[in-house]
Design brief:
heterodimer, A: mainly beta, Protein Yojf, Chain: A, 6-stranded antiparallel sheet, 3-stranded antiparallel sheet, 1 helix, 9 strands, globular, B: alpha/beta, Rossmann fold, 7-stranded mixed sheet, 7 helices
């Protein structure tokens, strides 16, 4: 993955507009967030993910100055992600976007594919 | 000496973090050790530091790291269950324990190491530990292996003193090398450790010392 450049990512997003797209979206603060370990302050462990929901959106936009936000407008709703920092178009043509913290840990991801993600 | 040890853990790196010293000691004694790993830790947030994995490349990398770490600990008998990270507690408990029972009956270990069903922090740890306990409970008493449970984190203090304390001092370098082999997961941890050690020289020693002790609670039937 490499740092997001909005113009390039915008082009990549555009390729998924008005098509049936497999979506992977997640956010996490780590399975051990609630633990008093390695000097960290315990908080709630929070995570959500959806893998392989089929969605169709009519407009897709990446915004911000970094970390970036993405909004995908559907006929009956929205897909939203904030905190995106890096992206890649992998060898299978999937658009992978993620937000990494200063230590390289993934905090959020938003991924689009025309074929199902492996489960 | 055990006849055969089976380590049943949900994610690559659990076997090393929780039981790495025990595995290395059993291997040094000549006991075969089979690792049964539930998932490939597909949803881990650590991607290396600086990151070199992404959500889709992570599973294959973690499988490779698992095999390398286990080889360092002395075993190449690594088997995968093909479950999915973070979902173990949502599976049909009956299906899961039958599946594990079949694996235990095929391998016939004298000892199984797994996580404590109530006090091991991660829902996958506890769900898999509970499934192992159910699987062994369903076996006839004569066929049951001993089950030793690793507990840690919030709540584990209520268990009181462990039934068994394994001192991994003789193999601590092997265990630390196996931890480092789980590069995507532990590079950041080692970096934090080195940074803190630069300020406080006692810190690193303390971190390593913590890892020499592997506490177990014996499952009673």
């Amino acid at each position: 993955m490499k740092p997001i450049q909005t113009a390039t990512v915008q082009d990549a997003l555009q390729a998924f507009v008005n098509r049936d797209v497999y979506l992977h979206i997640e956010t996490t603060n780590g399975a051990y967030a609630a633990q008093n370990m390695q000097g960290q302050t315990p908080t709630m462990a929070v995570c959500a993910y959806v893998r392989n929901a089929v969605v169709r959106f009519t407009r897709a936009t990446i915004a911000g100055n970094g970390p970036y936000r993405a909004g995908l407008q559907m006929d009956q709703g929205w897909i939203y992600a904030e905190g995106l920092t890096d992206w890649t178009l992998d060898e299978q043509g999937r658009l992978l976007m993620a937000g990494h913290d200063a230590e390289g840990r993934l905090a959020i991801s938003l991924q689009l594919s025309l074929t199902p993600f492996h489960v | 000496m055990e006849r055969h040890v089976m380590v049943i853990m949900p994610h690559p790196d659990d076997e090393t973090m929780a039981c790495g010293g025990s595995i290395a000691l059993h291997r040094q004694a000549g006991t075969p050790v089979t690792i049964l790993c539930g998932t490939l830790g597909e949803m881990g947030r650590n991607m290396g530091n600086p990151f070199f994995a992404n959500r889709e490349t992570l599973p294959a990398l973690r499988e490779k790291e698992l095999r390398e770490a286990c080889e360092i600990l002395g075993t190449t008998d690594v088997r995968l269950m093909g479950l999915r990270d973070k979902t173990i507690e949502f599976l049909d408990p009956e299906w899961l324990s039958s599946r594990i029972r079949a694996d235990i009956e095929a391998i016939r270990p004298s000892l199984v190491l797994t996580y404590h069903p109530l006090y091991s922090v991660h829902p996958d740890h506890m769900a898999l530990g509970a499934a192992v306990v159910r699987a062994v409970a369903a076996m006839s008493p004569a066929d049951r292996p001993a089950v030793h449970l690793r507990a840690f984190g919030t709540g584990s203090e209520t268990l009181g003193k462990p039934d068994l304390v394994v001192d991994a001092t003789p193999v601590i370098e092997v265990k630390m090398a196996a931890i480092a082999a789980h590069k995507s997961q532990t590079q950041g941890m080692f970096a934090r450790m080195e940074a803190k050690a630069a300020e406080d020289p006692a810190f690193k020693e303390q971190m390593i010392k913590q890892r020499t002790i592997e506490n177990y609670w014996i499952q009673k039937y």
